[in-house]
Specification:
74% helix, single chain, disordered N terminus, 11 helices, mainly alpha, 0% strand
Length: 267
């Protein structure tokens, strides 16, 4: 059997699809974790330690995409890095404490995912109506205070629940603090760098999985695909927010939650 085309736990085309799903959804307020778990289920991928590690590891592709887009910004405005660290601290503490529960329980609960998607969608729709009337106080990335950064990090910690969405939590938190839509979207992109690096590193340290050639092939395919699609997704979202709000994502989340519930009932 050719290892290039057939993997023990995942076919090459499944790794390709999941990589694309990660890249497209990571920076949109629709929960990449929920989409990865759902697509894994629908593609018939075996639920194993490797599949869970795969979902986390391919986030490196999305991280590299953000780095490619914002490397010059970080070089020219190094103080942003300190604010990203401040935002990451509460997320890192909560994430470290909750890691065992998330990996063993939350990731396998499709009812939890459906609930988080639906409730998050309803909240996003409601919030956009509220935010439309709110006066924006802050300007660019350099004007984000350390206090605001820490509060955004606390909001991001909610995303340990699959279906909440890291980007949705940070973006809504930033908007509620009075940040410009473009500013908090960019800060959410950048906050993914320490957050996903830490999540990937923690998973690799705690995982007892020994990666062989087939698994490394699957990880490589997924990572490259995640990089390409994440780069395109970041560029698209920056153009999208110039004329639109996130209400459409709220309706999408709600529709997906209904589809998941129907699937769970009839399967």
């Amino acid at each position: 059997m050719c290892l290039i085309f057939i993997f023990i736990f995942m076919d090459w085309w499944q790794a390709l699809i999941l990589g694309a799903v990660e890249g497209i959804t990571e920076f949109l307020p629709i929960s990449s974790t929920a989409h990865l778990r759902l697509f894994s289920e629908w593609l018939g991928i075996v639920n194993s330690d490797f599949s869970k590690s795969f979902d986390i590891f391919i986030q490196l592709g999305a991280i590299l995409a953000v780095l490619a887009v914002y490397l010059k910004t970080l070089y020219r405005q190094p103080k942003i890095i300190l604010k990203l660290i401040a935002a990451f601290i509460p997320t890192g503490i909560i994430g470290l404490l909750a890691y065992p529960l998330v990996k063993s329980q939350f990731m396998d609960s499709f009812w939890l995912i459906a609930s988080a998607l639906g409730l998050g969608g309803l909240f996003l729709i409601w919030f956009e109506r509220y935010y439309h009337k709110k006066k924006v106080k802050s300007g660019g990335l350099e004007q984000i205070s350390y206090q605001q950064a820490c509060l955004i990090g606390l909001c991001q910690a909610l995303a340990i629940i699959p279906g909440i969405s890291r980007s949705a939590a940070t973006i809504v938190g930033g908007l509620a603090l009075g940040l410009k839509r473009s500013t908090i979207v960019e800060f959410s992109f950048l906050l993914a760098l320490p957050t996903m690096l830490a999540a990937t590193g923690l998973d690799l340290v705690k995982s007892t999985w020994s990666f062989g050639r087939p698994e490394i092939m699957a990880l490589s395919i997924g990572l490259v695909m995640a990089f390409i699609t994440a780069w395109l997704s970041v560029k698209w979202l920056l153009r999208f927010i110039e004329r639109h709000n996130f209400r459409s994502f709220g309706w999408y989340r709600l529709a997906l939650a209904i589809i998941v519930v129907i699937y769970l009932v009839v399967r």
